[in-house]
Write a structure and sequence with these properties.
about 850 residues, alpha/beta, eight-stranded parallel beta sheet, six-stranded parallel beta sheet, 33 helices, 17 strands, about 10% strand, globular
């Protein structure tokens, strides 16, 4: 019977509310004040209903329940959009079954689809992939929209228009009227709004048709709720006359202009998350592996337009992904012009060219700056390097390197077009493919003139005495840029004088290879400026010691002395791994072998619980086994060790240190309990790698009495925060540092690290090293590393791990042994010192 079908539907809505934690009617109104008034919700769930409730009401209720669940740590569904679409199908089924009843009144009819859908041409929906976090953020912002519009802000080619189109595709059933407005020119805006006006009222006057159309949206309830999308809008100052003021509707804007964050709710549209890039490529390119897709995405820095082009090119040409990458590195400009998406009309390189042309007309100094940045090391370009120093520059470009305000404006313009990225610490970044394209677009003579300017910028930077250790960081920065700009080929006399100092720096740090590479240039300069007696023997050159080898070494006496001071004063940040003893590691290895056998684990590293857990989590039919593994690990990690009863518990030792912050890759809470046992009140946080965990948390000012404990890989107490699989680790690494809470960032940059309880072959150690490699820190850290195998770690393996740490530019003194070995040795030295 129809009534029974409707009753079951309403009962299911009530069950959903219960699963979400039973939000009150007031809480539901907070989540959607426009649609979920308490009386409306009460009528929906408890009233005597003869007709199906409208879909916009059901949609708002379902989404509010999901949001309430997320706020309280309940992830009801992994794919919320698919879940909502399931409710839409269910709603349509109930509506169809109710069609045998009397015709509903107009106000109660099924609003599953908009009455009006049109306007300027939205993009063809073909290449959209992933973007779940952004879509969820957009959905939340649109649902909460009051007086301000929502604006998708980002550079060209990042998928803002496609994201707006996908929002319409998924949420059009919320609206009666949906209209797409081409906003790049005022004339196009007027045309599209006039077309909407004629659809709303055929007799609308032509004299003031834009204002009359906006008035109809504000005042005529027949067309509400409505959605207007203004695509590719310019500066907010040019849009004021076209935006509705009030009424029951939403405004969504896409724009490259950062100024929208002052008058709209901004949502930054950056590059793809790595998982989204891999998903798109594996879906579009038959036979490409996840690893190959990851390599393509890495080379393209996950730029959405570039990833789409790469997928089309590889699929259409039949090239192997490795061959495509080789061609991309050889001819980036040409390759990035091939196979543009039909919904964008141009390739990535052409989109860049359009930006170059616009900058040449509107902000030429920004183009001058970008061309110089093309010859510098892309990862970290400090603003100080972009200021003219002791060596003068010449030509029309000189002003931007002399006037700091002009330089700031230029960097702002480059950021707007996505040509540079602000990286914090007064630095900017430029992608190497963009650098190659910029250099390709310059004629040979101009390219060499720009390179000479870069050499003079570097040589004019005052780094001080190259033998003074305090100046080493500045010389290290310049050395990287010197290599990128081929400074060793310079014939400029004044630049060669700087090279002489650079060679002295290389010799001071025992980098014989670096000194040898530049010594020819330096000696030429010396021959022109000094009288040299050829009968006097030159000092023997320093032996070639790779500079990176000095970054990571085994612990020495000075390291212990420094650590003892840090431990007693709290001037270090402990980072604790999941395992603190070989015995515990051996038990976990045995458990891992057992789980691997039960799973039919097909790989050779069955001893590695992280790999086995990743396998179980990734396979949909092994969810129960994954839960069993997690429960077993939790019991083992929480269990008190049964080793030497006289040996000090590493957690208890760390809890006695007056440190203000602790980091851990363990899921368990032993560290926090040890701090509580020491009379301290830890504040527990997790890394915000999932969108639902990125909600603003109170920023704490940690103290020894109230220290911060941050779980970098999640906590058992917050199941949705756990980093369990390789996919999770990739997503975690894609979180930009500016999305981290300031107190967590403070723990990373304030003090050197004391890392204990890590196996350097584990995935958790790889995750930690990748997270820390982007943290600028000249401080020397301490690491206690161990191999859980019965034979310990061979000398060759130790050399390998030292080189690996150094390759990440992490300064570290390494102790070989587990946490108990390390704490025992440290305690002995502390007693000797006392």
């Amino acid at each position: 019977m129809p009534e029974e079908s409707l009753q079951a539907f309403i009962a299911a809505l009530g069950e959903l509310r219960g699963r979400a934690g039973g939000p009150s009617y007031r809480e539901l109104r907070r989540l959607n004040p426009e649609r979920l008034a308490p009386s409306t919700v009460q009528s929906l769930l408890e009233g005597e209903r003869k007709r199906t409730p409208s879909w916009p009401l059901v949609d708002a209720f379902v989404r509010a329940c999901l949001a309430f669940g997320r706020e309280n740590g309940l992830r009801l569904e992994d794919d919320e959009e698919a879940y909502v679409r399931g409710w839409l199908d269910r709603h349509r089924s109930v509506s169809a079954s109710m069609s045998q009843a009397a015709e509903p009144a107009p106000d109660d009819r099924d609003d599953s689809l908009p009455r009006i859908l049109g306007g300027g041409t939205p993009p063809v929906r073909g290449h959209f992939s992933g973007r779940r976090r952004l879509l969820a953020e957009l959905g939340t912002a649109m649902a909460a929209q009051t007086g301000w519009p929502v604006c998708l802000v980002g550079p060209g080619g990042h998928g803002k228009t496609q994201l707006a189109s996908e929002y319409i595709h998924q949420h059009s059933s919320r609206y009666v009227t949906v209209w797409w407005v081409r906003a790049e020119q005022p004339s196009l805006i007027r045309t599209d709004l006039a077309s909407l006006g004629h659809r709303l009222d055929e007799g609308i006057g032509e004299a003031a048709i834009v204002s009359e159309t906006l008035k109809l949206l504000r005042e005529d309830p027949r067309w509400a709720p409505w959605l207007l999308v203004f695509d590719n809008a310019g500066h907010p100052a040019t849009m004021g006359a076209f935006l509705p003021r009030g009424g029951s509707g939403h405004v969504l804007i896409t724009s490259r202009e950062p100024a929208w964050d002052e008058v709209a709710v901004p949502i930054d549209v950056g590059v793809f998350e790595r998982g989204d890039s891999i998903e798109l490529l594996t879906r579009r390119v038959p036979g490409i592996s996840v690893d190959e897709a990851g390599q393509v995405a890495e080379e393209l820095a996950d730029m959405p337009l570039g990833v789409v082009q790469a997928g089309t090119y590889i699929k259409g040409s039949g090239l192997a992904p490795g061959a495509y990458l080789a061609r991309l590195r050889e001819q980036p400009g040409r390759m990035l012009d091939q196979h543009p998406p039909v919904d964008y009309g141009r390739g990535l390189a052409s989109a860049w060219d359009l930006g170059f042309e616009t900058l040449a007309q509107t902000c030429p100094e920004a183009l001058h700056l970008l061309r110089r940045c093309a010859f510098l090391r892309p990862e970290s370009i400090s603003r100080g390097l972009l200021r003219q120093g002791r060596l003068a520059l010449s030509g029309e470009s000189v002003a931007v390197f002399q006037d700091p305000v002009l330089a700031d404006n230029a960097i702002r313009a480059l950021t707007r077009y996505g040509f540079v990225r602000l990286a914090g610490q007064g630095t900017i970044q430029v992608h190497r493919l963009l650098q190659s394209t910029v250099k390709e677009r310059m004629a040979g003579e101009e390219r060499e003139r720009v390179r000479r300017d870069v050499h003079r910028l570097l040589a004019g930077f005052d780094c001080g005495d190259p033998d003074n250790r305090a100046n080493f960081p500045r010389y290290a920065e310049l050395a990287g840029h010197a290599e990128a700009s081929s400074l060793a080929d310079s014939t400029d006399e004044e630049v060669r004088g700087f090279v002489t100092r650079l060679v002295a720096y290389f010799r001071a740090i025992n980098d014989g290879e670096g000194a040898e590479r530049y010594s020819g240039v330096a000696l030429e300069a010396g021959a022109r400026t000094t009288v040299h007696d050829s009968t006097v023997a030159r000092p023997a050159p320093a032996p070639a010691v790779p500079r990176r080898a000095l970054l990571a070494q085994e612990m020495e006496r000075d390291d212990w002395a420094r650590l003892i001071y840090q431990v007693t004063t709290g001037d270090c940040t402990p980072i604790v791994g999941a395992d603190v003893s070989r015995e515990k590691a051996a038990r976990v290895r045995a458990m891992s072998w057992e789980w691997a056998g039960r799973l039919g684990y097909p790989f050779a590293d069955a001893w590695d619980f992280e790999s086995v857990l990743d396998y179980a989590v990734t396979l949909p039919d092994q969810a129960a086994m994954a839960e069993e593994i997690l429960d077993g690990l939790r019991r083992e990690w929480e269990r008190q060790d049964e080793e030497d009863p006289h040996a000090e518990d590493p957690y208890a030792f760390l809890a006695k240190m007056p440190a203000t912050s602790y980091l851990t890759t363990g899921y368990h809470g032993r560290l926090a309990r040890s701090l509580l046992g020491a009379g301290r009140e830890p504040v527990i946080k997790v890394l915000p790698w999932r969108p639902e965990r990125a909600a603003a948390e109170p920023v704490v000012a940690p103290t020894p009495e109230r220290p911060l404990v941050c779980h970098l890989a999640g906590s058992y107490d917050l199941p949705g925060s756990l980093v369990l699989s390789e996919s999770d680790r990739l997503r975690c690494l894609r979180v930009e540092y500016d999305q981290w809470s300031p107190d967590i960032l403070g723990a990373l940059v304030t003090y050197p690290f004391l890392m204990i309880g890590f196996n350097p072959r584990s995935s958790s150690f790889d995750l930690l090293m990748s997270l820390l490699s982007g943290v600028p820190s000249p401080k020397r850290n301490i690491m206690a590393l161990y191999d859980p195998g019965p034979g310990g770690m061979e000398e060759a393996a130790r050399r390998y791990h030292l080189a690996r740490i150094a390759r990440l530019n992490i300064r570290a003194a390494v102790f070989w042994g587990d946490a108990r070995d390390f704490i025992q040795e440290l305690s002995r030295r502390l007693e000797t010192t006392a």
